[in-house]
Design brief:
heterodimer; A: about 300 residues; mainly alpha; MetI-like fold; two-stranded antiparallel ribbon; B: about 300 residues; about 70% helix; about 0% strand; flat; transport (chain B); membrane (chain B); cell inner membrane (chain B)
């Protein structure tokens, strides 16, 4: 990173970096330190000095069955969301990469859902996938109670996963298409000459060459599913965590605990666990999956 | 030319049309529903054909959720976030790439770490900071001098509060950094030979050259700012500051009232439109920016 470094002034870089550094200190590092501190103290509800309580907040959190429920819900949400977005993005990228007439238009259209906020999408999908009207009403007319996200937690979880996957599929599509375009054409053309059909070429050449991109998307989408802005927004605006805690993801529970339950210490302890969990995931993914990824 | 078979081509089209139905289908349902009457929107089976009531429904949604205020506020918030990011990240990247200073590695890592911890997991203490901005400074002054200062300043219900904490991450810095690194050394050398200082070089050469990056970052940040949900929800209690995402709730049909989903869908269409237009128009730069920032 020392390639450039042509100017010698010592105060000018500080001046240029200062506004962003100041904002980051105030709104990033200070709150990040506060989370760590609050997780180990108990703020008295009526003011006064905070009391150091060690791991007590964490013990309370782990003793709460609803907390474990939110961990399971988050895992299912994040895992299913990741798999759907990557599979849809991959299939569409492989199709568009064949560059048939009209591919350009499809490429333009597939990216559009990314522009939509999770909560706004959630609102629309509440209509689109409502049990009484829209598309699913006809199915419910034949099989009563086949689909009812307002009543069954599992249906509601499927609903929020669909919204998440819809919004993010175009995003994985962009990266996978960019990845496919960097696969040397000589490789696929040679395979075609040897008589390998499109599916054979996808499985034996294109997908293995995409491994680094797929790995990157796996890490990004898992994290997005766990702590992303849309995860909270979709759940909060679409199902409100219900029915029966069925869609209560970890971020939702943290915000609920802090601003409804006014339990800052508990919420902070949960935040720390969440951060730890993301770090563990990222580590596992690097440790075990990266080995099977072939970089050029 | 890669060999083509009619079967493979047909199969590819089937996949692409399925993708279209999955990803664009919801927009068609929203548009159809938003342009129907109350009876039509609630009819089973659903009619996918758009009707002619879009403007009436949009007008109803407009007044029900006071969308004029909400759209203005969202526009201000998204613009502030975009402008702040585009300007501050360019400055930081300039400091990191073009100067020989021991602090550059420190700046780099300090900015880099912010990518790890999204607002959602540190939202509780960030809220506390925004509610009492001078708290950190009071502690600092007390620690240094022992004097207890009692100044308070809160950012709740303000545009600064809506935008500043969102500007405090590093997304854009890396986009600029990567671009600056690709510029040849000779460029800055030539500027120096010509006698122009670093500031002149930044404004007259670097910024005009970074136009593509700026457009890319502008698209990404506008979508990011416009779509903020949790933060405005916490920061804003005064209805005159509410954003479009907060007006979603007002658009929902009430529990036991008329299921006027046509109005709801028309309203959500209005709320979805601005970022959708920005992405559609600036798509080429948007994609370039996405692929460059994340990798």
């Amino acid at each position: 990173m020392d390639k450039h470094s042509v100017f010698k002034s010592w105060w000018l870089p500080i001046l240029f970096a200062l506004p962003q550094i100041a904002l980051i200190l105030l709104f990033f590092y200070w709150p990040a330190v506060a989370v760590m501190q609050w997780a180990f103290t108990l703020e008295p509800p009526f003011g006064g000095a905070a009391e150091f309580v060690g791991w007590a907040n964490f013990q309370d959190v782990f003793a709460d069955p609803f907390y474990w429920n939110s961990v399971v819900v988050s895992l299912i949400f994040s895992l299913c969301g990741t798999v759907f977005t990557i599979v849809v993005g991959l299939v569409l990228a492989l199709a568009v990469e064949r560059q048939l007439p009209g591919s350009g238009l499809f490429r333009f259209l597939y990216i559009l859902p990314y522009a939509i906020a999770g909560p706004a999408a959630g609102m629309a999908f509440r209509f689109i996938l409502s049990p009484e009207r829209g598309l699913m009403a006809s199915v419910n007319a034949i099989f009563p109670d086949f689909w009812n996200p307002a009543k069954y937690g599992s249906h509601a979880l499927v609903l929020v996963i669909i919204i998440f996957a819809w919004k993010w599929a175009g995003y994985t599509f962009i990266f996978l298409l960019a990845g496919l375009q960097s696969v040397p054409r000589a490789l696929t053309e040679a395979a075609a000459m040897d008589g390998a059909g499109p599916i054979r070429r996808a499985v034996d050449i294109q997908i293995p060459m995409l491994a680094p991109t797929l790995f990157f998307l796996l890490v990004i989408m898992m994290t997005e599913g766990f702590v992303g802005a849309d995860t909270f927004g979709i759940v909060h605006n679409t199902t409100g965590g219900g029915p029966n805690h069925g869609t209560e993801v970890m971020v939702f529970r943290i915000v609920d605990e802090a601003f409804k339950g006014l339990n800052y210490s508990g919420a902070s302890a949960q935040s720390i666990v969440l951060i730890g969990l993301i770090m563990v995931f990222t580590f596992i993914q690097f440790r075990f999956i990266e080995k099977r990824v072939h970089y050029k | 030319m890669i060999q083509r078979t009619p079967f493979a081509d047909a199969f590819t089209y089937v996949l692409m049309v399925l993708g279209f139905l999955l990803l664009i289908g919801p927009f068609i349902v929203i548009l159809a529903g938003a342009s129907q009457t109350l009876q039509q929107v609630n009819s089973v089976p659903f009619q996918f054909v758009p009707q002619d009531r879009l403007l009436e429904n949009a007008a109803a949604a407009w007044s029900r959720a006071s969308l004029a205020t909400a759209l203005t506020n969202s526009l201000i918030m998204a613009s502030l976030v975009t402008f702040g990011k585009v300007v501050l990240s360019a400055c930081t990247a300039f400091a990191i790439v073009f100067f020989r200073t021991p602090l550059k590695h420190f700046f780099f890592w300090m900015v880099f770490i912010t990518l790890m911890l999204p607002l959602e997991v540190r939202v509780v203490p960030t809220y506390a900071v925004a509610a009492d901005l001078f708290h950190p400074f009071r502690l600092l002054i007390a620690a240094l001098t022992g004097i207890e200062v009692s100044v308070e300043w809160n950012l709740l219900n303000s545009y600064a509060g809506l935008s500043l904490p969102l500007i405090a991450t590093a997304t854009g810095t890396f986009l600029y950094r990567q671009f600056f690194m690709t510029l040849p050394d000779e460029l800055a050398e030539a500027a120096r030979m010509d006698g122009s200082g670093p500031v002149r070089f930044f404004f007259d050469m670097l910024l005009p050259l970074s136009r593509t990056n700026m457009l890319a970052l502008t698209t990404i940040m506008f979508v990011y700012g416009w779509n903020q949900y949790l933060w405005p929800l916490l920061m804003i209690t005064d209805p005159s500051y509410k954003t479009t995402m907060m007006s979603l709730v007002a658009l929902l049909p009430s529990e036991n009232g008329t299921p006027d989903w046509n109005v709801t869908l028309a309203g959500s269409l209005i709320i979805m439109a601005p970022p959708l237009i920005v992405v559609a128009v600036l798509q080429r730069w948007f994609i370039r920016g996405l692929v460059a920032t994340e990798k």
